[in-house]
Amino acid sequence: MLSIQKLIPQGRGLAAVLLKRAASVELDWDVRQKSRFDATDSTGRHLGVFLPRGSVVRGGDVLVAEDGSLVRVLAAPQPVLEVRACTEHGSPFDLLRAAYHLGNRHVPLALQPGHLTLEPDHVLADMLRQMHLIVTEAQAPFEPESGAYAASGHAAAHAGHDHGHAHAPAAAPAHVHGPGCGHDHHDHGSHSHAAPAPSRGKPLGIAVKAAPAPHVHGPGCGHDHDHGHDHAHDPDDHPHRH
């Protein structure tokens, strides 16, 4: 058995001449949606495919064997149901509505501009016919949609990105002072730290004594705490007039 543990989606990056010379293997959807399976390629070699769990093999993908040889994957024709809108009694919107209902049932669907394709199911076929759609049996390769999350994985990245931004507002409670305080603290980002005061060029003595004043608030606080004077307002103590 020839072991295969690597897949190149749609043979990207491979030279056309290499793909032309490669062996091929024809697989239906039931096999291709598995990450581990056995198969026989066009040269008669027995293949043991061991891909990472959750892998799905699509028609056009290329398998890489342990000896470095390539195997092109072909989607084998299989029994399917093709669903089309009735041009006489319905409209293209009926097909859109059918895709919605089938999607709600997690039915694998292949989407084409003029029809839907799904695996045979007589219950679903009856439901679709009751919706005035035309359902016919056919033999064709089946390549259902992979789904939004499987396609790119951006959802997780965006979720992590949004989570990082969600931490920014968490700093706001540090500026919420006593009951009744309506003071707007957004212009005083450094008030929560006593140390930065000297960096603004103020004498250390002023910074130590003045820093607590803006932060000691309580009920009925009028917010008029920063007079710029470090003394009592007794007219007898001052030879000058304000």
List strands and helices in order, with pairings.
Blueprint lengths: L1 E7 L7 H6 L1 E5 L1 H4 L3 E5 L5 E5 L11 E4 L4 E6 L2 E8 L6 H13 L5 E2 L4 E3 L3 H9 L2 E8 L7 H5 L1 H12 L38 H7 L32
Parallel strand pairs: 1-4, 2-6
Antiparallel strand pairs: 1-5, 3-4, 5-6, 7-9, 7-10, 8-9
Q: Please trace the helix and strand order, writing H or E for each element.
A: EHEHEEEEEHEEHEHHH
Count of helix runs: 7
Give the overall average pLDDT.
76
- Assign a percent range to the helix content: 10-25%
The share of residues in extended strands comes to: 15-25%
Radius of gyration: 36 Å
So, the CATH homologous superfamily of the largest domain?
Urease metallochaperone UreE, N-terminal domain
* Arrangement of strands in the largest sheet: 2-6-5-1-4-3
CATH fold-type name of the largest domain: HSP40/DNAj peptide-binding domain
Count of DSSP strands = 10
Structural class: alpha+beta
Largest sheet: 6 strands, mixed
In whole angstroms, the N-to-C terminal distance is 100 Å
Domain count: the total is 3
| Top-tier CATH class of the largest domain | Mainly Beta
Shape: elongated
What's the architecture of the largest domain, going by CATH? Sandwich
